[in-house]
Amino acid sequence: MVTALAVPAVASTSSPTTPSAAIAPSPSYERATRIQKNLRMTLGKKFAGAWVSADGRTVTVASTDAASAAAIRKAGATPKTVARSEAGLASAQSTLNRKARSAAGSVSSWYVDAKTNSVVVETRSVAAAKRFVRASGVDEQAVRIVKSNAKPRPLYDIIGGERYFTTQYGCSVAFSVTNGFLTAGHCGPTGEATRGSNQVAQGTFGGSSFPGDDYAWVNTNSQWTPTAKVNRWNGTYETVRGATAAPVGTRVCRSGGTTNSRLWCGTIQQLNATVNYEEGAVHGLIRTNICADPGDSGGALITETGGQAQGITSGGSGTCNDGQGSGDSTYFQPVAEPLQILAGQGRQLITDGGGNPSPGYCDGYSTKATSSISSGANQYQPSYTSSASGTHGGCVDGPDGVDFDLYLQKQNASGTWSTVASSTSPGPDEKVSYNGTAGTYRYRVHAYSGSGSYTVGYTKP
Q1: Residue 393: CA atoms inside 13 Å, Cβ hemisphere, count?
Q2: Summary count for the chain: helices (H), strands (E)
Q3: Cα–Cα distance for residue pair 9/7, rounded to 1 Å
Q4: Which carries the bigger pLDDT value, residue 55 or residue 136?
Q5: Where is this region: Disordered (predicted)?
Q6: Which has the closest alpha carbon to 328: 287, 295, 296?
Q7: Residue 392 among the catalytic residues
Q8: 267 exposure class (CB count in 10 Å sphere: 0-12, 13-18, 19+)
Q9: Which secondary structure element, helix H or strand E, spans residue 339, and what is its range?
Q10: 214 φ, ψ (degrees, to nearest 5)
């Protein structure tokens, strides 16, 4: 028997528990850090904090002893004499921390502010903040109350394979997309609300197709950040780098919220399989020999190497409870179809590169053009005639998460076109270089997998 892995009879209902670019430190930062470290040691209990001016040129160091001014100037900073030391302010903050449970919900934060030599309490209600400060027993002269409309809330990452919940089922995340994630269609209808594994409100199904297909996407709220990660369940993560479809025999791995003891791996057995569930047939699936259990529905199938997203866990036969995970059949909805639909909404798979074209990849070519293409389609650039032999160079620069290929074609005497050079690596960016004779040429861009905008560039002899 083959079953979808989140149908009501077997659904799990219990609740289990994008790289930002590094910024090189500026000289002013290094200088300020050195001054702060040295003067904190030199001034000891008199030290009251340090800060850098908005233009990064001036470092101010505060002290409770005016006699420290000479030492501060000698160290290269501007002195400021204040009433309370850094240690004194930290002690006041610790007092508030110990009484945190007595703070009303309108009190949003408190922190040490060296510039004003105070502990700042931010709040939507000044009266509530005053009650909190008074009840804590802290020195009220050390506290400055600031009115703020801020409502801080925790922020969470969206990671492939991890559990989420609807009103009926526990399912798993497949892959992050712009402002959401992919999952199985049988996990919920359009409009269904979701909660994360931590039971925090997460989003709603923005689209869902089942049976026939078995895909859906969830539009998440601002507390949730899509990432290019798939959980390996050993403290590390697979990194999603694209979505190039793999052939039969490829080693692939599955991640799901129920079988979260490890990443389960096997091979692609067949493509374009049909499964006849009780709810109806689902077509065009990837069949594997990897096990899965209820609640793994919607989870990620990714290549064992290369980080290529393949499919969304749909259903299967067998179980991982025997600890073997081999000999079973599990079926996956390919990611290409939902990604193509989302591309029409200006959304795409989140990959290690953040979903953006490679900056400057096609720089240096004499002719450049931009266009967009749908998965599986071909587009041809205007032909050109070269009157001399020499090197033809071309490139295509696509968005992360797609697989675009580039072909250089030459027109023969009968008027037909023949490919003379090509670049077909599994990724969005390609370059070709061809030493050819005089004649008429053109470039063909093929969207092998995925849709989106691209730049093409070329130079003729």
Answers
A1: 11
A2: 5, 32
A3: 6
A4: 136
A5: 373-392
A6: 287
A7: no
A8: middle
A9: helix 336-343
A10: -145, 65
CA–CA separation, 135 and 137 (whole Å): 5
Average confidence (pLDDT) over 181-210: 97
Q: What's the Cα-to-Cα distance from 176 to each of 60, 230, 312, 392, rounded to whole Å?
A: 44, 9, 12, 38
Q: Map residue 12 onto helix, strand or coil.
A: coil
Determine the Cα–Cα distance for residues 460 and 436; give it in Å rounded to an integer: 10
Q: Which of 338, 388, 399, 396 is nearest to 362 (CA)?
A: 396
Catalytic (active site) residue 429: no
Whole-angstrom Cα distance, residue 324 to residue 264?
Answer: 10
Burial of 31 from C-beta contacts in 10 A (0-12 / 13-18 / 19+): middle
Domains and CATH numbers, the chain: 3-16+160-343 (2.40.10.10), 367-459 (2.60.120.380)
Tokens of 55: 């233009």
Question: What SS3 class is residue 53?
Answer: coil
φ, ψ of residue 186 in degrees (nearest 5): -75, -5
Which of the residues 214, 293, 400, 405 is marked catalytic? 214
Q: What does the pLDDT read at residue 10?
A: 32
To the nearest whole number, what is the mean pLDDT of the chain?
Answer: 88
Round to whole Å and give the CA distance between 48 and 63: 5
Q: Any catalytic annotation for residue 297?
A: yes
Q: Which stretch of DSSP H or E encloses residue 321?
A: none
119-171: pLDDT as tens digits: 999 999 999 999 999 999 999 999 999 999 988 877 899 999 999 999 988 99
Q: Residues 108, 297, 314, 375: which is the catalytic one?
A: 297
Torsion (CA) 192, 198, 202, 205 in degrees, nearest 10: -30
Closest CA to 237 of 18, 428, 400: 18
Q: Which of 186, 197, 375, 423 is catalytic?
A: 186
